[in-house]
Amino acid sequence: MKKWCKAGVMFLLMCLLLIPLGACGSKEKETTKVRVAEVTRSLFYTPQYVAIEKGFFKDEGLTIDLKTTAGGDKTMTALLTDGADIALVGSETSIYVAQGSDDPVINFAQLTQTDGTFLVSREKIDNFNWDMLKDSTFLGQRKGGMPQMAGEFVLKKHNIDPKKDLNLIQNIDFANISTAFASGTGDFVQLFEPTASVFEKEGKGYIVASFGTESGHLPYTVYMAKQSYLKEDKETVEKFTRALKKAQDWVQESDASEIAKVIQPYFEDTDLDTMETVITRYKEQGSFATDPILDEEEWNNLQDIMDEADELPSRISHDELVNTDFAEKVSK
To answer: What is each CA distance from 26 to 21, 23, 32, 244, in whole angstroms?
Structure first.
């Protein structure tokens, strides 16, 4: 009996000694938290959600704290006030806040390379032409924002003066534009996906044209951070950019149905068929950047569009507000 008790005690002691060893062996790898503010929630940003859901950020030792801050002004404010480490927003915002800054906001990785909005008509139009917008009420985007500037650029390209040839409404808050149109405001509206396709499915509007195919390549949505963050957290930024490149490659190689299933948690109110339609549309028109490099030609095209809209404070060189070091390194 005594021998049995002694053996039992020895067994318990061994267990107690082994438990901490096992716990140490199963300890999870430490990760770096990165706070990301996205300008809106849209299928236009599909590669970002893929990078999260496929674990590409996690593989790099990063934990992404993603928040949607509706509107470019709110997103930039979050970045400037240290409410976010990285912002996903239009490159034009970095130009607006560049004047006199001792810690400028730098574009370091490109996510989308075309405009992501579509022209939606209240009535179904079988044979659309841009002249149909003349004398209509057009519900546009926020003044000074990239969607509105790209929209005006396309209208002028088709010989439509947005200030004279139509009734342009652009004083509605970004988050409420689709609601305003659904409530009866406007004959035409400029919308992102998946809202445009959802409206079409519900009979609230009909997609008649793409601003993305009309406006050409430009750094439409880009990851940016303060220059100080890029210097102090170089390793984190490189890991972030590498994860993004992995997602961009995966999106290019995968079909829309597979992509839709992966990112559905971010669009619970959108059915898979609609998501597949939207992703296919964006892939076919080349909206998703194939690598994170923001080149000089795209940068100049952006400023040409801003200048055309009378929204360019002054031209800023590519090397002043763009850092391609991280993007080029992970793209090799």
So the answer is: 9, 5, 19, 28
Distance CA 163, CA 178 (A): 22
Sign, CA dihedral 32-38-42-46, equals negative
Element holding 323 (H helix, E strand): none
Tell if the pTM clears 0.85, that is, is over it: no
Q: Does domain 32-114+218-331 have CATH number 3.40.190.10?
A: yes
Residue type at position 271? D
Condensed to tens digits (0 to 9), the pLDDT of residues 146-175 reads: 888 899 999 999 999 998 999 999 888 877
pLDDT in tens, 75-96: 999 999 999 999 999 999 999 9
From the list 185, 172, 114, 165, the residue with the least C-alpha distance to 141 is 172
272-300: b (≥16 Cβ within 10 Å) or e: eebbbbbbebbbeeebbbebbbbbeebbe
Instruction: Look at the alpha carbons of 168, 173, 177, 179 in this order and tell me if their dihedral is positive or negative.
Output: negative
Distances (CA, A) of 100 to 13, 95, 208: 67, 11, 42
Measure CA 111 to chain center. Answer: 6
Strands of the 86-89 sheet, one edge to the other: 62-68, 32-38, 86-89, 221-226, 105-112
Q: For residue 86, how many C-alpha atoms fall within 13 Å in the half-sphere facing its CB?
A: 27
Q: Is the peptide bond before 47 cis (omega within 30 degrees of 0)?
A: no
Please list the alpha-helical segments (H only) found in 165-221: 177-182, 195-202, 211-215
> CA-CA distance, 119 to 129, in Å (whole number)?
11
Asked which of 109-113, 127-131, 207-211, 216-220 is least confident by mean pLDDT, the reply is 216-220
Q: How far apart are alpha carbons 264 and 272 in whole angstroms?
A: 7
- List the CATH code of the domain at 117-215: 3.40.190.10
For residue 276, give both structure tokens.
């597949």
Q: Is the pLDDT of residue 138 over 50?
A: yes
Domain ranges of the chain: 32-114+218-331, 117-215
